[in-house]
Amino acid sequence: MMIDRFRVQDRAAVVTGAGRGIGAATAVALAEAGADVLIASRTESDLTAVAERVEQAGRKAHVVPTDLSDPEAAGALANAAHERFGRLDIVVNNVGGTYPKPLLETDTEFLEEAFRFNVSTAHALTRAAVPAMLESGGGGAIVNISSVMGRVSGRGFLAYGTAKAALSHFTRMAAYDLAPRIRVNGLAVGSVATSALDVVAQDDNLRQQLENNTPLERIGDPEEVAASALFLASDAGSYITGKVLEVDGGLQRPNLDLGLPDL
């Protein structure tokens, strides 16, 4: 049956940034579709709550509290999953983010930190995952969570947008290197109701700007992103690689007024 192509029965996955938001929703979606999941983020209590939901779906959860701003820590997750589950089939690189800053306040160190957190960590985990994927299942699927800001312009988002644009192109380049046995795709995510958007969502003016600039006239839900990640990770997306799927409600121009000072 066609619906079976969306299942990932008895596969093993790693999801970073899985304590809340998109990462948590994706970990639970993969579990509900049949996968065991290693979940990683800084806060153990958040991960414990997500692990309970994974186990309620009848699958195994492995909790790894770690600082994912360190690429070495991110890379170590591949071996941890392989040792715990005996295989590794799916990686979701969800860790990332950077605070908005005007260009003149964005020094080189801040820009490099944004790149390391959003791109280097994904590269480290992807590189470490490849041998485990090839050994256990002969291949696998990698999904990178990028952003609409990687393809549109927005004031104050220079570091974040540049890093996410790099992650999107990393996705395309890695797909060529790892084909045909490992598929690599990404999601360019728009405005989604996560803790990272709390400051905006709690400000009526900023929230209204986002909703007005989005053709679907609302902020997205983490489960909507998780459904897309599951599609790309499952056999339903088996003929897709090197693509960045836009999950953004049709958003074309954020144009948020964050109150940043003029030059």
UniProtKB/TrEMBL annotation:
Signal peptide: none annotated. It comes from Haloechinothrix aidingensis. Belongs to the short-chain dehydrogenases/reductases (SDR) family. NCBIfam families: PRK07231.1, PRK07814.1. InterPro entries: KR_dom, NAD(P)-bd_dom_sf, Sc_DH/Rdtase_CS, SDR_fam. It comes from the Bacteria. Residues 11-203 form the Ketoreductase domain. Keywords: Oxidoreductase. This is SDR family oxidoreductase. It holds the Pfam family adh_short_C2. One of its GO terms (molecular function) is oxidoreductase activity.
